Amino acid sequence: MIFVFLFLLGFISLGFQTLLLREFLVIFSDNELIIGIFLFNWMLTVGIASYIGEIFVKRIGNIKKTFEYLVFFTALIIPANIFLVGFLRRFFQKTPTEMLGLVSAFSFSFFAVFLICLVFGLWFVYCANMLNLSGRSVVLPISRLYAVEITGCVFGGFLTSILLVRYFSPLQISLIFSALIFLSLSVYFSKRYLLFLIFFVPLFYKSDSLEKLLISYQWKPFNVVETKDSIYGKITVLKNEDAVDFYENSSKVYSTVLSAKNEEITHLPLLLSYDCKNILLLGGGLHNIREILKYPVKKIVYVEQNPVLVELLKKHSDDRIMSLWENPRVKVISTDGRFFIKRTTDIYDCIILDVSPPLTGLANRYFTKEFFLEVKNILSEKGLFVFPLLSSENYMSDEQKYLTASVLKTVKSVFSYCEVIPASNNYFICSSEKHDISSKLIKRKIAEKNIELKYLTNFYVDYILRDDRSEKLDEWVNEKQKEVLYNTDFRPISYLYGLKLWLSFFGEKLFLKIDIYSAANTIFVFMISAYLFLILLFVKIKKRLYELVVVVVSGASIILALTMIFAFQSVYGYVYQKIGILLSVNLLGIGAGSFLSENFIPKNRNNIVAIKLTIIFMAIFSLILT
Question: What pTM, to 2 d.p., does this model score?
Answer without folding.
Answer: 0.84
